[in-house]
Amino acid sequence: MAVVKRNQNSDNNSPKKAIVSKISKTTPIKSVNSQKQIKSTTLSKSTKNKINRTLLNKSHLDIELENAKNKVKENPNDPFYHNLLGVAYKNKLMYIQAIKAYEKALELDSNFVLAYYNLAIVYKEQSKNEKAIEYYKKAISLNPNFTSALINLGNVYYSIGKIDLAIECYKKVIEIDPMDAISYKNLGVAYLALGRLDKSLIYFEEAIRYEPSDQETQKFMGMAHRKRRKLRSKIKDIYEAIKSDPGNLNLRNELALIYFQTGFIKNSLEEYKVILKMNPKDINAREKISLIEKEIEEENHKEPL
After folding, report:
1. How deeply is 115 buried, as exposed, middle or buried, from its count of CB atoms within 10 A (0-12, 13-18, 19+)?
2. pLDDT (tens digit per residue) in 216-269
3. CATH number for the 1-23+57-177 domain, one of 3.20.20.140, 1.25.40.10, 3.30.1370.10, 1.10.760.10?
């Protein structure tokens, strides 16, 4: 399953990114030169408004960049303004210049958290995931409670298939801010991608609790409910088939996995133990037993959400 990020500007008050269905990047300013070939009378009102907004936005970004350059000239040794210049370049998709500006800010102040954070955003937008991870980690090492950096780091891990590491990041955010709807939502998506329908539903419900109007979360929760119902509907038939053929390991593995995915954890554990007893060389069953036992122990020592 792919992930979605809330659009984010790499400024000092940058909002958090959420994941849900697809990756969205800052939309580059498109050229409107082609309008010269079209008579203005042929343009619809909505098209004219879109062109005007594009031109206005482009003008705003140019002014923002010019102002940032002037601030750097006035304050050449102030890392804040070099970071501000990096933001202006990044907003115009001038990534090389943005990186140089952020690096200059760090040259002036090696503990400037926002510069590391903004560098990570630039590298992520260029799909340079390892560099993005490096700089998000640096920002977090300087500010362990930097929830935006933790969420974004989790999103990078998710995008490269390291879902367990993504989950760790989102859970850290919830430890810091137990009402962070984005992290609950992200955890729901991550567990849904792992096929853990029971856990995904728990976190989607928490996300909706803190953000009741989030239709995207509601959509994914509905998907998880449907998948869980479909899997649970198979349990009775598989169970009956095993009664007729108790030595069928394929059936037992299928039942154990469905139990695991749909929330019947203890049933799953017992079934995997039977499988391992029947086939002591079954590595998957051994790993699942270890995983489930660890999970049960953690649940027993964890306070409810």
Report:
1. buried
2. 999 999 999 999 999 999 999 999 999 999 999 999 999 999 999 999 999 999
3. 1.25.40.10
